[in-house]
Amino acid sequence: MFISQPTRSTCIGIDLGTTNSCMCVFDKTTPRILENAEGKRTTPSCVSFTPTGILVGEAAKRMEALHPTTTISGIKRMIGCQYKSDKQERRPYKIVKGRNGEGWIHINGKTYSPTEISSMILKKLKKDAEAKLGKRVDEAVITCPAYFNDAQRQATKDAGTLAGLKVKRIINEPTAAALAYGIDTRKENEGKNIAVYDLGGGTFDISILNINKGIFQVKATNGDTMLGGEDFDKAICQYISKEFERKYKRNLQGNKKGISRIKEVAEKVKCELSSSEESIISLPYLDGQDSLEITINRRKIEELCKKICKRTEYPCIQCMKDAKLRKKDISDVVLVGGMTRMPLIQN
Length: 347
Known about the structure:
By secondary structure, the chain is α+β, with helices and mostly antiparallel strands. Helix content is 32%, strand content 31%.
């Protein structure tokens, strides 16, 4: 008689990011990144509501330029935060005051909390992880910015629960990064103070860690939950919009599709100029009738983003003060997050 054995479940680690999310599993002695259904190591933190259903990840990201009012990105910046009417204009989709005082998304006559939108992203990660591993995934450890408050951490945990995951722990992103790099296992790091500078798509964190017998002690943390790659993108978007206005003597206000296309190309140009010196921006029929083509170089991007980059300085200084340390007391700096690939940040 054949008796089927219950499928084993496993626990995964999830970096729930503003721009992209990532999942991994602990494989014997080291963490291993899991590819999603599309074969990629990161999944866009994007959800699109279409007439035929809800798209998540890469498929949703492709809808953003054409359907900006029904495609949600950057939801991490809203999770666990109270509604502020002045923020509504910054997003192409409609934001309303939710039942719990949070900003909720209003689409096609329905409202969704940031927790619900985040859970949709987590559901995809869970499904993709199960397909990759060939077994159930019921548990997860999810990262969040070190500077997230209790409400934001609880909302992140609730998103995991809604996605069908038992959230074993919410761990600070800088601590997770230090563990992933194996900083705690290196003997030469014993007794040292290490700063983890984490600049992602929507949030910035700085943490100073001290290592004692392989155990991390977080001496201080600081950051800005409203500072990240999106702000750099906006600066580039404004420049492109002004170039269009200068050339054609009219602006793109109210043209949500045009603005969404600029946002898409701004992000690409920012990434390109991290490794190249020059890039061409080409936007055919941007407002339905006129096209824009301009050449932009790294020097110009750095000029546009210099003030935003400088905003990371105060949290770093404050973090050192809280830790009662000076610059010379920091032995190493670990750069984490996609934005740290930008030469302006590294320099």
